[in-house]
Amino acid sequence: MEKKIFTPIFEVTDKKRNYIIKSSIIIIVLLAIIAITLIIAYNKSNKTEYIKYNESSSVDYKVYLKSNDYFEKKYLSTDKKYIASLIKNIQADFKYDLDMLEGTSDYVYSYNIDATVNVIDKDDKRVIYTDTKNMVERNVVSNKIDQNIDIDENVKIDYNKYNNLISKFVDTYDLNNVESTLFVNMYIKLARDERDLANAKVTEVASLEIPLTTKTVGIEMVSNAEKGLKNDLFIKTKNGKLFLIFIALLILGVDIVYAVILVRFYMNTRTDQNIFEGKLSRIINTYRGYIQKVDLEEINFGEYQSVYVNSFSDLLEIRDTLQEPILMIENKTNTEVHFLIPSQTKIIYIFLLGTDKEKKRLTDGNKVENRVN
Fold first, then answer.
1. How many CB atoms lie within 10 A of CB 158?
2. What residue segments make up the domains of the chain, in order of their start?
3. What pLDDT, in 10s, does the model give residues 208-221?
4. pTM for the full model?
5. Quick one: pLDDT at residue 228?
């Protein structure tokens, strides 16, 4: 008949107990895998997104002249020195191209061009006066933009307005050792949606530097977007789906409770035989190199005086002292094991490991040679 295990809570057979334990372990592992998968999914959805892209920027200009007796053309091209008193205005053409290679179907962008006048001390380069005016502002609000961003913006710069402003400022305060410049800069912002556009990273992509309050003017063109493949374009920090982490934590909580219940079930339904086999397995796995299994017939117990020790640790200390191997004899019902160390002084040291029922049989008249049969 199949042996039954009884506890104050429930009664279960060995077969059913093993089935419950194995099934519960599988369920606990599966729940843990599901929870970990959900946490990984949350982490993947909660990240800063970057995309690969190619970009380039440029700025070109023409200096339109006032009527004069020396220049036949209405304007002069780039890379020249210009007489400040002959400048009527400056036509600047700002271009910016960005080719996003992936994940761009729902991104929006905006750009603006600002004019900034700046007066600094020539010696220590500290700013004395600065003021910025917006010249162009474009918000491209679309969830379906092309992969290419192609901006071509022409602006008219009223050189005389800015030059007269700063000349009056310098004359009013009798500033001699100063350097005055007009900066015309183009900026771009990129975001996933319109709500994030206001707080998106601002990048300066091109600029003109135009000296003020000088007799001749040399204009510098600066392009900050170098050509080439890049992968550091900031788009947005995605907010992870909180319900994923909530479900994961809920599953982990259930998993922990289930594991605690399983441990209690395991402890409450152990038989004496289960406890004995567990202890025996731990001893053999830990001290395999010290233990030698022998048959009962190999030892003549009549030649020895038997001394029982209380623990396997005690037997290990004796083994270390005598430098003798630990012998192991198991009874035929697999309910009891004797660990022995025979000594040259005809004393045999014994540690008994068995079920509680078997240990009760240990009496002075119940010798080892009788117990193992």
1. 14
2. 4-45+242-268, 48-237, 272-371
3. 999 999 999 999 99
4. 0.54
5. 58
